[in-house]
Specification:
single chain, 249 residues, alpha/beta, Rossmann fold, eleven-stranded mixed beta sheet, 11 strands, globular
Length: 249
């Protein structure tokens, strides 16, 4: 099955991806974040899209054209989506440097185009979103992590906030009370849009900092960049293991 990989902060390109084509896809919802790269990775064809764009001016999370991104991947024949998210840790187990495969999310975003449904179908589009991540795909990612001995945590609730500013300590306290283990800015409406188009979708979160008020260390972009560098290497190892299990390599 054709796989689409969506990269985020820190994952602007996939090291080892042999790019064979670049696709500028026009969609009814405008342009995707960038031309989508088609390539070969770990012996499998893969489409890579960096949601913040590939240029010198990154697209902030609240301005990403999520509808165009998901639609374009579908138009290229992508049948499953594996997404990366850089996040903050709320739960004390979610410390910087951890890869986490979430199983649930809470959406706190606003003002984003959350659906392909514009009413023209003549009926309301009610999509079951009880379990936002595809269970089969998520299970395969977990199995690949175990097989390749990639350190990870199984299960977390991801709270998706508007951004681009970071949260106050009081907001993080509220999110923790709501049951959030992680906080990020890009998981929605991406996951819901994939569900609308019947594309199995799962995410891997890279914890890059303790959320506001949850850690002893002051906020530092230098530390976050170094954490992202290490976690991106682990993420690449996980993708490699996942694809090799698909091909039996």
């Amino acid at each position: 099955m054709s796989l689409g990989l969506i990269g985020g902060t820190g994952l602007t390109r996939l090291a080892g991806l042999e790019v064979v084509a670049s696709h500028a896809v026009d969609t009814p919802y405008g342009q995707p974040s960038m031309a989508i790269e088609e390539g070969v990775f770990a012996g499998r064809k893969l489409f890579f899209l960096h949601r913040h764009g590939g240029g010198a001016q990154p697209i902030p999370p609240h301005l990403v054209n999520y509808r165009a991104n998901i639609w374009a991947l579908r138009e290229l024949g992508v049948e499953r989506i594996f997404a990366a998210n850089a996040v903050g840790g709320v739960n004390s187990q979610m410390i910087p440097g951890k890869l986490v495969i979430p199983h649930q999310l809470i959406d706190y975003t606003w003002g984003r185009e959350h659906s392909f449904d514009d009413g023209s179908r003549g009926e309301l589009l009610h999509v079951d979103f009880t379990r936002p991540y595809d269970e089969t795909l998520r299970s395969e990612i977990l199995s690949a992590a175990v097989a390749a001995d990639v350190p990870h945590l199984d299960g977390a609730v991801l709270g998706v906030v508007q951004g681009p500013r970071l949260e106050t300590a009081a907001e993080i306290t509220r999110f923790a009370q709501d049951g959030c283990d992680l906080i990020g800015m890009t998981g929605m409406p991406e996951a819901a849009l994939a569900r609308e188009l019947h594309i199995p979708y799962a995410a891997v979160c890279m914890v890059v900092n303790a959320a506001a008020g949850m850690g002893d260390q002051p906020f530092s972009m230098d530390v976050i960049r170094e954490t992202l560098r290490r976690e991106t290497e682990r993420f690449g190892a996980l993708v490699t293991a996942f694809l090799r299990r698909q091909t039996g390599i």
